[in-house]
Amino acid sequence: MASMSDVARRAGVSIATVSRVLNNNGKVRESTRILILKAIKELKYQPSRVAKRLRSKSVSGNLLGVLIPDIKNPFYVEVLEGIEEVAYRNNYALIMCNFGQDDQKERLYLEILQSEGIDGLIAAPAHENDLQLKKMVKEGLPVVCVDRGLKDTDVDVVLVDNVRGAFQAVEHLILAGYRRIAYISGLSTIPSSLLRERGYREALAKYGVPCDPVLVRRGDSKHQSGIQLCGELLDLPDPPDALFAGNNLITLGALEEIHRRGLKIPKDIAIVGFDDMYWSSSLNPPLTAVRQPAGEIGRRAGELLIQRINDPKRTSVQMMLNAELIRRKST
Amino acid sequence: MASMSDVARRAGVSIATVSRVLNNNGKVRESTRILILKAIKELKYQPSRVAKRLRSKSVSGNLLGVLIPDIKNPFYVEVLEGIEEVAYRNNYALIMCNFGQDDQKERLYLEILQSEGIDGLIAAPAHENDLQLKKMVKEGLPVVCVDRGLKDTDVDVVLVDNVRGAFQAVEHLILAGYRRIAYISGLSTIPSSLLRERGYREALAKYGVPCDPVLVRRGDSKHQSGIQLCGELLDLPDPPDALFAGNNLITLGALEEIHRRGLKIPKDIAIVGFDDMYWSSSLNPPLTAVRQPAGEIGRRAGELLIQRINDPKRTSVQMMLNAELIRRKST
DNA sequence: CAATGCAATGTAAACGTTTTCATTTAGAAA
DNA sequence: TTTCTAAATGAAAACGTTTACATTGCATTG
C-alpha cells in the first residue's frame, strides 16, 4: 500500500505538506494542493488509521468500542445497529465486544479496547459497580453507558424508564383481571432487573394485589432460565395466572415452556414481556410487550459519545427514553 | 499508560529485552526475565496493539474484520456470534461492519478495514463479483467468505448446501400434498437466492409439479419485501396453497401479512422458511424451516481464517455444511 | 535597495513497538 | 591468565503518521 511518503515523492513535496492537504489545516498553495491530490488519486493512497492513531492522541483515530453483554439478545442487536448507523455516518469503525455476561471476558475485552487505543466506548457494563470501567472513565476515556448505569460515576447514560415500563405492564395485567402475577427476573446484579422488579411491586401495591414471594423468580437473563423458571412457576400448587417476563430471552423461553405443556395463552396463563421485537406480532399469540426504543438508544448513545469525544469536558447527561406498552393478544 | 520504555527503565534494561520476554523469543537470562515481569506487573503495563500493528506486518496484530450484509437478520447475528467466539478464544478483536446490502457502504467499509491493517477478514460479499474484495484477496489479505462465495477467486468459503436445503423444503411441501407452491426470493444478485430457487425448481420438476412463473417473486431480502410479496401472492386470482420463503426476514414478513389477513396456517396456506431461529418453535404456528447451522458456520469461518493467517499459502477449502429441515406445524 | 513580515514549505522528532545487527558479558577451555 | 564461544543485552532503524519548529521565498514597505 502506498504511504504518505510515496505521495510526497510523486508530488515533489514533503510529507508535511501532504499531511496538511489531507487534514485541511495549515496553508498550502492551491497549485501544490492540486498536485498532491493528483498523486493521491494516482497512487490510490489511503492513509493508515493505525499510524494516525499511534501518533496522535489529539486527533481522533476514528475507532469506537462497543461492549455488550449478549449478542443473542435481539435488544442489544438493535442497539448495536443504532450505534453502527451513527458511527458509520461519522466515519468511525466499531470494535464489537460481546462479553456474554462473563466478568473475566469483560475484563479482557476492556483491556483489549484500551490497548487498541479507541477514542470512545459504548458499554452495557456487567454491573453498576464495574471497577475497571469506572477507572477507564476516570482516566478520561469517553464512555457512554446504555441500558445500565455506573454507580457514583460521572458518565453519560441512555436508558429507558424501567420502573415505569414494568409498572405499565403489570398494571395492564391487573386491569385485565389477573391477580396471581409472577415475575421472572434476569440477573439481579443488573440494575434493570431490580428496577423492573420495583415497577412490578409498585403496580401490585397500588392496586392492593398481594405480592406472593413465591411468584418472583430470579435467573440469569438467558433463554434457558425462561424455560426453567416458567416451568417451576407452572408446577406450583397454586400457579400464576399471568407472567411478567424480565427480558425478551426470558419471554421466549417462557413461551416455549408454556407451549410445551400445551397450555393456552392467555386463557391458561397470560404473558407480557419486557422488550419488543419487530416479529413479536408473529408470535403465538402475538405478544403483549413493553417496547424499548432500542435502535434509538443506540443512536443516541452514538451521538452522545461522538459529542463527548469532540468535547471531553461537556457536562454529562442521563437520557431516559420512554418505554411503551404494546398490547397484543397474549394478555 | 505505561509504555515499554517505562518498563525497560524500571527494570534497568533496554526495550529490546523487554520485547523479548513479552514475545518469548530470543534468549534472556532468567533473573532479568523476572525483573522485567515484576516491572510489568508494577506498572500494569499493557502492550499497545496499535504500535505492534504498525510496526510489524510479520507478527499478527490480532485484529479481524467482519463484513456482513444485514445485522437485522438473525442468521448473520448467529454467524457473528460464532466468529466472535473463536476470535476471542484466539485473542483477536473484531471490527464489525454492517453494510446493509449497500454497495457504497461496503466499499467504504472495505477501505476502512484495509486502513485499519486487519490481519484477516470474514465477509459475506454483496455479490459474487465483488471486485474490490477480490482485489484484496489477490493482494494477499486472508479472507474467508461465509454464506456467499466469490467467483473465480481462490478463497476459503463456508456455506450451506442451499440447493439441497431448498429441495428438501419444497419436496416436503409436495409430499404433504401442496401443489401451488410459491417462492419468495431474496435479492437475485445474491448467489444463495439463485441456488435456493434452483432447489425449488428441481423439487417441482422431480415430482412433475408444474412451475407457475407467477408464483416466484423476487424482493430485496428484507422484512418488508416478505410482507409485500406475500400480499401480492395472496391477491392472485389463483393464489398459492404453500409458500417457500427465501430467508428468515422474508418468512417473518410473510407470516405477518398472512396473520393480518386472518388466514390460518397451514389450513389456508402453508409456509416453510429458509433459516431457523431458536425461537421458531414459539411462532404462530411453530415454524417448519430449513435450519442452517449458523453458529457453526461462524466458528468454522473463524477457524479457517486464523489458520490462513498463520499459513497464508495453505490451499483453499470450500466447506459445505448440511442444512436440515425442521418440521413443525406450519406445513 | 534593505528590511520586514507573512505565506508556503520542509525537517525532524515523536508515538510504541519489532527486529537486525553490534556489542558486552560470562563461562569454558587451554 | 588468556582466549574463545555462546549467551545476553543494547543501539538504532523502521512502520506511517502528526506537529512543532525552522527555513525559504516573495511581496510589501519605508
What is this structure's SSE topology?
Two copies of one chain form a homodimer.
Chain A (H helix, E strand, L loop, with lengths): L3 H8 L3 H9 L6 H14 L5 H7 L7 E6 L5 H16 L3 E6 L4 H13 L4 E4 L7 H8 L4 E4 L9 E5 L1 H14 L5 E5 L5 H16 L9 E3 L4 H13 L6 E4 L2 H13 L9 E5 L13 E4 L2 H17 L7 E4 L2 E3 L5
Parallel strand pairs in A: 1-2, 1-3, 3-4, 4-5, 5-11, 6-7, 6-8, 8-9, 9-10
Antiparallel strand pairs in A: 10-12
Helix pairs in contact in A: 1-2, 1-3, 5-12, 8-9, 10-11
The structure holds a DNA duplex (30 and 30 nucleotides).
How would you explain this protein's 3D organization?
The structure is a homodimer of 331-residue chains. By secondary structure, the first copy, chain A, is an alpha/beta fold. Chain A has three domains: 4-47, 434 Repressor (Amino-terminal Domain), CATH 1.10.260.40; 63-159 and 294-320, Response regulator (Rossmann fold), CATH 3.40.50; 162-291, 3-Layer(aba) Sandwich (Rossmann fold), CATH 3.40.50.2300. The first copy, chain A, is 45% helix and 16% strand. Chain A contains twelve helices and twelve strands. In chain A, the strands form two sheets. Chain A has a six-stranded parallel β-sheet with strand order 2-1-3-4-5-11, with helices on both faces. A six-stranded mixed β-sheet of chain A has the order 7-6-8-9-10-12, sandwiched between helices. In chain A, strand 3, helix 7 (131-138) and strand 4 form a beta-alpha-beta unit. In chain A, helix 1 (4-11) packs across helix 2 (15-23) and helix 10 (223-235) crosses helix 11 (248-260). The termini of chain A are far apart. At the A-B interface, helix 4, helix 5, strand 2, helix 6 and helix 11 of A face helix 4, helix 5, strand 2, helix 6 and helix 11 of B. Chain A binds a DNA duplex (30 and 30 nucleotides) through residues 3-5, 13-17, 19-20, 22-23, 26-29, 32, 47-59.
